[in-house]
Write a structure and sequence with these properties.
By secondary structure, this protein is mostly helical. Among the domains are: 115 residues, 2-Layer Sandwich (Potassium Channel Kv1.1, Chain A); 115 residues, CREB-binding Protein, Chain A, CATH 1.20.1020.10. It is built from 15 helices and seven strands. Strands 1, 4, 5, 6 and 7 form a five-stranded mixed β-sheet that branches. The protein has a two-stranded antiparallel sheet with strand order 2-3. A hairpin with a 4-residue loop joins strand 4 and strand 5. Helix 6 runs parallel beside helix 8. The radius of gyration is 36 Å and the shape is elongated. The chain starts with 28 loop residues before the first strand and ends in a 6-residue tail after the last helix. The relative contact order is 0.07. It holds the Pfam family BTB. Pathway: Protein modification; protein ubiquitination. One of its GO terms (molecular function) is zinc ion binding. InterPro entries: BT1/2/3/4/5, BTB/POZ_dom, SKP1/BTB/POZ_sf, TAZ_dom_sf, Znf_TAZ.
């Protein structure tokens, strides 16, 4: 089965192994023909980025082929019966009463119908308007790509069909043809084929450059993400080495994108780690209130006797807080900063007091003491504690919202 082959220095090879122009030399000729020979005087159409006399594809002009009109009451049909596609395929292959010859660079001719070609492509329509007629037959030339690719392109204009092996082999030619001749439906197909199955580390750099020439921003983005994701391997390919010499500005842009993505990745990791710490602090606050109010494991509630039968504790931080409290009650130093464990529980108690809304009835030790201490702190210290409280509350709210969203898919509407 034929596969997609790319020559990194020229973007791709044709079916015979001959190099196609760099990157694609698409030249369209509208001439009068005598037999199969073209007059040397001809007009050329190239990619807009390479030719100043080729404007963007024009809108459908009002020509002798008729103006495209759609009834307001007409409804779009997204599912075309296969019999209709068979009909258009048959019309293309049999070329019944054709009035157009599409010539390729290697001298082959593709018989087709100017009305079909002109309706599907506004650029081809403009060419048909300028082409001279001999014996009722118009002639246009599409050079720069293999005749097989042109054949697939013209067939797609009829029935929107193609063979998968042909698409795999000529997808880059077809992408260029769809862009030059303004056939968005074919461009979407080519982009989808490249994104889903035809991109590889060996050809992604070449396809990225072609995507930019053919105004395919989504494909360009997919290629960029692939390069960033497998940067080390892709920089060893021939395509990357050629791109460095031919397009150093693109290399610089990709390197900057890599640095930016790495910075974002580090920032995301830092935020996740911070949120993890804030969430642990929130769990510690819950466990502290639970132990002082209800009692748990070996510590009874404040001013009450520990019950003999305790339910299974649902607070993940309860065991750690219990150990800190037992240490705090027995430690001889008992001064903030004198003992690391005492300092930790001291800070947790102060954080609780700032989050507590009912210090008069609170069972947590020193809650009222820290409330009074707040009044004598500097603005800087006050702002620091307020920021910590907001982060702790925000982490719990974020976690709760994520949990709720995960439940929704299982609900039946």
């Amino acid at each position: 089965m034929a596969c997609l082959e790319l020559d990194s220095s020229q973007f791709l090879l044709n079916g015979d192994g001959n190099v196609i122009g760099s990157p694609f030399d698409i030249q369209l000729e509208c001439n009068s023909f005598t037999g199969s020979k073209a007059v040397q005087d001809h007009s050329r159409y190239t990619l807009p980025s390479q030719c100043t006399n080729a404007p963007d594809p024009p809108p459908l002009p009002g020509t002798s082929y008729g103006t495209h009109r759609t009834s307001r009451n007409a409804k779009a049909c997204r599912c075309v019966p296969e019999e209709i596609q068979d009909f258009w395929d048959r019309m293309f292959f049999e070329a019944y009463q054709y009035d157009l010859r599409v010539l390729t660079e290697d001298g082959n001719e593709i018989m087709s119908h100017s009305c079909v070609v002109g309706i599907k492509s506004p650029v081809l329509r403009a060419m048909l308007e300028e082409a001279k007629v001999h014996g009722g037959i118009r002639h246009i030339l599409i050079p720069g790509v293999p005749s097989e690719a042109v054949h697939v392109f013209i067939r797609f204009l009829y029935s929107s069909r193609f063979e998968q092996y042909q698409m795999k082999r000529y997808v880059l030619h077809l992408l260029v043809l769809s862009h030059v001749f303004s056939v968005p439906s074919l461009k979407r197909v080519c982009i989808n084929q490249l994104e889903t199955s035809l991109l590889s580390p060996e050809n992604v750099v070449d396809i990225l450059q072609l995507a930019r020439l053919c105004d395919a921003p989504r494909l360009s983005l997919v290629c960029t993400r692939m390069i960033i994701g497998d940067f080390k391997a892709i920089t060893q390919t021939e395509g990357w080495r050629v791109m460095r010499q031919a397009n150093p500005s693109l290399e610089q842009e990709l390197l900057e994108s890599l640095v930016e993505e790495d910075t974002k990745r580090q920032e995301r990791a830092r935020r996740l780690e911070e949120n993890k710490v804030y969430l642990q602090l929130h769990e510690a606050m819950e466990a502290l209130i639970h132990i002082c109010r209800d009692g748990c494991r070996t510590i009874g509630p404040r001013d009450q006797t520990l019950k003999s039968s305790q339910a299974v504790c649902r607070f993940p931080a309860c065991k750690g807080i219990e150990l800190l409290l037992r240490h705090f009650s027995a430690c001889k130093m008992r001064v903030p900063g004198g003992c690391a464990n005492c300092k930790r529980i001291w800070q947790l108690l102060e954080l609780h007091s700032r989050m507590c809304s009912a210090p008069e009835t609170c069972h947590v030790p020193l809650c009222r003491h820290f409330k009074e201490k707040m009044q004598h702190l500097s603005r800087k210290e006050e702002a620091k504690w307020n920021l910590l409280v907001s982060k702790v509350l925000e982490s719990k709210a974020t976690t709760s919202s994520i949990s709720e969203r995960r439940k929704f898919p299982s609900l039946k509407t």
